[in-house]
Specification:
Helix content: over 70%
Strand content: under 5%
Shape: globular
Number of helices: 16
Order of helices and strands: HHHHHHHHHHHHHHHHEE
């Protein structure tokens, strides 16, 4: 049984290294969007390159995050976590030194592999190290400090882009890793799951990632209307079908399809797809809109986005407690509608927009909607499956959210009518951005309708998430095997 106490020196070191590791990945998911216009300008890149700068990372992260957790369970959580930290830092260094857009996109894909190794390991190390009496508090501190990292990410990204340059958005990860990895090796105990048999669904992971990659490529390059795009789209669908067949036949699949026999689990993941597709498209395009159309600096644009993450950091735990009392159906129905209203308010944002009168009200409404829905969504995911599958259910839900954001970043500019050079023209980008906000709002309304029609009350003995404080805008929080605790 793990016996590290949170007040002990070793407990503090464990908290520090897991916070540093998770903050690397969380910061990266929030700061890069702010840097995109400068990246495009410096590397003479079109909109497709900016989409790939975001999507190459999300592609490998979403496709491999379940496999990363399994590797940690078998080979040692600390070992895989440290490998992930070092890998992430090396890929970040390559991103920061990238001489061309092609090298940057490839390095971002490598970065996502590192993220898939370290992200599930961060929480798993806490759960495997701390005494049961201290575990809840340790997870709370970890998620709280991680939330602070997410909240300062846009501000930090803007400051770096305006100051030393966009390359430091990536180079910043290197000193964090140089601090994190030695602390982990010296102070974090190794742990593994003795029940792990060492058989990994590598083929399933490869087919899932390949399907996402091909579909993403087809969506981003669809403006060309070439035969290659059509063939790629068909190949992506074929790879997706092959992924499902492999998961059906594999005795130890990465994503057991029978977990979707739970109607509630399936429904909540559909809501997740709608919600995080809208979020992914919104934050990708808004960071560009504030700089391209409104004309703000990266620092001003990044700082302006703070309200959404700050609201989640301050109120996500209270929202979860409220959902425990009233059930998840109302929050999961009302939350997406509030988010849709926030995106409709963004129609006021364009050239000459005022932060106080135009941008801030939209972000406050959006942030309120995010607060309302994220904690109940996680609770419902965990309550809809057997206790033994809580970690798997959380991982699938997290991967679904990241895949939804990936597809949204690829598809939304196309559907909104953005050309390859759209981000170089304030008027053209502004018009397309407003169309995109209408699309995002519509997707959120669909998510709300799905929640209202399908989500039901949780059983009285269901378990709450351990990650009560959450501020990530890219995915719901991961929960480990021991996720949750019974509600009295």
């Amino acid at each position: 049984m793990p016996d590290v106490r949170i007040a002990s020196p070793r407990g503090k070191w464990i908290l520090l290294t897991t916070v540093l590791g998770s903050s690397m990945a969380m910061l990266d998911s929030t700061v890069v969007n702010v840097a995109l216009p400068r990246i495009g300008s410096d590397l003479d890149a079109d909109l497709a390159v900016l989409q790939w700068t975001v999507n190459a990372y999300m592609l490998t992260l979403a496709g491999l995050i379940l496999l990363g957790g399994s590797l940690g369970d078998h080979y040692g959580r600390r070992k895989i976590f440290v490998i992930g930290v070092v890998w992430f830092a090396a890929a970040s260094l390559l991103c920061g030194l990238a001489p061309t857009s092609g090298v940057l996109v490839a390095a971002r894909a490598l970065q996502g592999i590192g993220g898939a190794l370290l992200t599930p390991g961060s929480l798993a190390l806490i759960q495997a190290s701390f005494h049961p009496d201290d575990r809840g508090r340790a997870v709370g501190l970890w998620s709280g400090f991680g939330g602070i990292g997410a909240a300062v990410g846009p501000f930090l990204g803007g400051w770096l882009v305006d100051g030393p340059g966009w390359r430091w958005v990536f180079l910043l990860n290197v000193p964090l890793a140089l601090l994190c990895a030695p602390i982990a090796l010296r102070h974090v105990p190794e742990s593994a799951d003795g029940r792990s048999h060492g058989r990994f669904d590598v083929l399933g992971a490869a087919l899932g990632a390949l399907s996402l990659a091909l579909i993403t490529y087809a969506l981003i390059e669809a403006r060309q209307g070439s035969l290659v795009v059509v063939i790629t789209a068909v190949a992506g669908l074929v790879a997706g079908v092959a992924f499902v067949r492999v998961e059906q036949r594999n005795p130890d699949p990465m994503m057991p399809l029978d977990i979707f026999a739970s109607r509630q689990f399936t429904a909540v993941n559909l809501v997740t797809l709608c919600v995080y597709a809208a979020f992914g498209g919104f934050f990708f395009l808004t960071a560009l809109q504030l700089q391209v159309a409104v004309g703000w600096s990266p620092l001003t644009a990044g700082t302006s986005l703070l309200p959404t993450t700050a609201l989640m950091l301050l109120f996500s735990a209270r929202s979860g407690a409220l959902a425990d009392r009233i059930g998840p159906r109302i929050p999961l129905t009302a939350g997406p509608l509030l988010c849709a209203a926030g995106m409709l308010l963004m129609l006021r944002v364009g050239p000459g927009a005022s932060y106080a009168a135009d941008v801030l009200p939209a972000l406050l409404v959006l942030g309120t909607g995010m607060v309302t829905l994220v904690a109940p969504l996680t609770s419902t995911v965990l309550a809809s499956v057997d206790t033994a599958r809580a970690g798997l259910a959380s991982g699938i839900n997290n991967a679904a959210a990241r895949a939804a954001g990936l597809i949204a970043v690829a598809a939304l500019p196309l559907v909104a009518g953005m050309g390859p050079e759209a981000y170089l023209s304030p008027d053209a980008f502004n018009d397309a951005f407003h169309r995109a906000m209408l699309i995002c709002a519509a997707v959120l309304v669909v998510g709300s309708a799905v929640a209202y029609a399908t989500v039901r009350a949780l059983p009285p003995d269901c378990r709450r998430p351990e990650c009560l404080t959450h501020a990530s805008i890219t995915a719901p929080p991961l929960e480990g095997e021991r996720a949750g605790r019974r509600i009295a």
